[in-house]
Write a structure and sequence with these properties.
- The chain is α/β, with parallel strands linked by helices.
- The chain has one domain: Glucose Oxidase, domain 1 (3-Layer(bba) Sandwich).
- It is built from ten helices and twelve strands.
- The strands form three sheets. Strands 1, 2, 3, 4, 6, 8, 11 and 12 form an eight-stranded mixed sheet that branches. The protein has a two-stranded parallel ribbon with strand order 5-7.
- α4 crosses α10.
- It is globular and about 55 Å long.
- The N terminus is likely disordered.
Length: 253
Amino acid sequence: MFSIAQRCCPLGFALLLTAAQASAQLAGFGPDQLRKYTPLNPYERLADGRPAIPEYWLERLREASTTLAQEVLAEHGYPNQFEGGWTNHEAGKKLVGRAFTAQFLPDRPDVMEIAEADSKARGEDAHPTKRVIDLLSPGDVLVADIMGRVEKGQFGGDNLILGLFLQTGRGFVINGSFRDLDGVAEHGMPVFVRGYHPGVREDAMLSGVNTPIRIGRVTVMPGDAVLGDRTGVVFIPPHLVEAVARAAFERRQ
């Protein structure tokens, strides 16, 4: 079995700054809005406006548990950043990275017609899942809301998800499902989903990328740090990443 980390191109920060240049996205927040709604961000920003949390601090988060992280966040006035109840077939591996969000809504023909026409005019892939994957960069964790569906809420199958792994070198969080578990599992990446189903996604249109989304009880902002373990997933605002990492260090002393 090959290593996703070995296959994922080490394009580094330059690609992070350029991969989403098309990100006057499908709908939702552009760079200016992301700057406006994440004013406490202490780091530089990616081209799409997301906070560029340094890899150093993301790696320090691996030393934290979601329980500790949620305690720290609650102490700072953020009590609603944890979501549990996931299916995770690599429960022993932590998921850490920068959130890249995608939102799916129930189909509505008049809206879909305009959105698909705009996407075609921009030269984007006709397949919504591929469209999202094409925008991902190394270090991104896709966080997608497909309305919590298992049946008819599949993000994709093993071939598309392999493409996602190769783009990011990370796993993902899908408030929905995927198919072809055997093919996905052989790559050994940590993923969090509501379940698995052999069917295909139906009655779900891609309504936005890099926009605030709801995952269970959490409002997830593009660029949040994602930390997933056996307990669940916590979404950490960038300005609190160092507080969580330092608390984890102190806990080990």
